[in-house]
Amino acid sequence: MMQHHLPRIFISGLLYLAVAFGAIWLINPQSLVNFVGPSAALFSGLLLLWGITPLIAVLLVSPILAFGLDYYFKLDANLAVMIIAVLAIILQGYWTKQLVFHFIHYKRWLTSRKQLFFFLLRIGPIPSLISASSVLVITILDNQVITGTFFYTFMNTWSTSMLAAVFFIPLLLLVNNAEQFKLTKRLFVSFTSILGGLAILLLLKTSQNEQQDYREALFKQSKVEVERLVLAEVNDVANKVNSLAALFKASDNISLTEFNLFSEGILEQSSSVRALEWAPIVTFDERVTFEQKSSSTLQKNFYISERSESGKPTPALSRTEYAPLYYIYPQYNNQAALGLDVYSNPTHILSMQAVTKSITAVASAPITLVQDELAKPGMLFSKAVFSPPEDNGIMDEYGKQKLSIIKKGKLLGFVVAVAQFDNFFKRLAEQNEQEVSFFIQDVSTNKPLTLFGHDFPKVNRHVDTMTIEVFSRLWQISIAEKEPWFRQDKSWQAWAVLVGGTFGAVLFQMLVLMMAAYSSELGEQVDIKTRALILAKESSEEKSLAKSNFLNNLNKELRVPLLAMKSFIEQLKKKGINNIQVTGISHAGSNVALLLDTMMDLSDIESGKITAKEDCFDFHGFLQRTESLLKASNAYEGKSVFFLIDESVPHYLNSDELYMQKLLNALIESAHHLLKVDALRLSIKLHKHKLADTSLFFTLSPLNPASLDTNEHGVIERTSGDLAADSTSLAMAIKYSQLLGGDTTLGALSSGVGVLNSSIRVIISSKEQQEIQQGLIFDLMS
């Protein structure tokens, strides 16, 4: 017994791994739930075939499967997920076995179309509900998602499990051949099922690839759009900084009113720029004068300050020059920053030396602004403003300008834009067409700083990361689909392929198997009919044998008194007694003997003991002898038969001369009684069907129809005795004609005159047969 279990465990384990990895690889997108449905269908089939052996294989191989899923497909097949999956596979297998045990045990799943329908229903749609329901729990554990719709995942798993069961289990049963089907039927059904399964698999795979390509294209489009909009917003902030820098560069003295008007013109309501600031260069010597003048201009106690370690503004320490924030638009909610020396900014946030050296705006690291009550992260975009440059040219020896050196003018100050992108990022994330989530960080240093969002789950989602340069800073944008694949809205094409492909495949397999089931039904019906025919034949043979035995016994019993009667009549004739009574008794005995011979012939014909010969003979000579015998017979005294032979009738035919003679005698006797005439016309014609295969027709009709004794309807008056005689002779004629391959019928002409027709099959003799027959006749005559 163990010798059978070990190979089966090994084969079951290999099939289990192959189906699980194949399902994960084939079904897009790759997910941990993909293997449950097909594996459950495989286990159901193996359980029906090999009993408990596949269960042992599944339990032993499942840890290997979990390791392979994690190693090759990077899927987290943890203990909880694998336990639920294995339990669902085992439960579906045993439920399937209970549902179809009756069909398998009694070998009735392919005996009829009705049985096949219920068998497929019990191996596919019904038990597949277990694996389809279990994947919902696995999906929640795998993705940590509780809300949302799981209907597509349910339908997809139910479909894959049902298709695998409907195609695999019948194929497995046919290969095992427990039902003892013919090899041709098994090969046809198996080959057709495999081709149909491959076609359906190719269709579903193509549809899945198209869906995933479309999904990936949408994700890439969203990614490009997010990058474009982020860069556009950053550039908009930089453009505002450049515009303000151009204003201070174009004029030596810009008043607060001019600054406010210009800032109001370029600062849009939906812009990410919260405030525009101007910080002029003030030397140490000019500090007191500048503070007094600024206090008068701003109508506020103004002094140059810097931020202490506690974050509070304090008077700035002595240094060569300062760059205090002098103009701020709007001042409301931003007055706390007035007078703050930008040189006091920490270098890791924004180095003013780097701003001075750069010809473009420089962005700072994310900071929490002092004037920001909501403590949202903000950024400073700063640009140094110089006086118009001087162009000094160096001349070569030929007096041509060889090199042009552009020197920066005097540093006038710094233009600063306070930007907060949080509202912009929120608007971007809430756009309906952007079905993605993104997480933005500043990664210019080893310690990333968060600009927007938070880290998100990446399971069953398209995820990508891009890094963009934002004015000397590096921003990393991690982008992913908002919802995993199973929760995304599917197009009607995806649903049509899933539902239509599933039911189409099941219908195809059902039609293929129903052809085999229909052939089984026909075979069973043929067997039933054959058995019935055999029984009927046996019964008929028994009845025929009983009838033949009865006729033989009756013939023997009647022959004894007939022989005694014949012997007594011969003795009377020897004594000279030969009156009318003796002659009548002799004639009656001869008729009874002839009747007994006819009865025996009819019985032998019915039982098949007599078969017609196909000997060559002179048909015209046969007719002449028959006509002569009829004229010489006492029974035909006062009666006549005129033979009318068609010229198409050949002289030599192949048939049975003896039974043709009996047929003519029975026909003529029947015609005399049926037609109630003494003078008959016998028309003989030949009709060719094929080469050397013809029918010979005998037609008996009154020679003189005007002399018939008919009533007003043209029907011949008959007596009961005539009808009895007619039925006996006519039955003899019918049997003899059937023996010779033809038939006998009674008809009437349009004038009402009765006609008796009979046909037999004959063969026209070949020249060689005619020559042989003529030679035999010549030898007999000589």
From TrEMBL:
Transmembrane regions: 6-28, 40-65, 77-95, 116-138, 150-175, 187-204, 492-513
All copies of domain CHASE, residue ranges: 250-430
Cellular localisation: Membrane
A Pfam family that the UniProt record links to this protein: CHASE
Catalytic reaction(s) noted: ATP + protein L-histidine = ADP + protein N-phospho-L-histidine
Gene3D superfamilies: 1.10.287.130, CHASE domain (3.30.450.350)
Enzyme Commission number(s) of this protein: 2.7.13.3
Keywords: Membrane, Phosphoprotein, Transmembrane, Transmembrane helix, Two-component regulatory system
GO CC term, one of those recorded: membrane
Listed PROSITE patterns: CHASE
Gene Ontology molecular function: phosphorelay sensor kinase activity
Main EC class the enzyme belongs to: transferase
This protein's name: histidine kinase
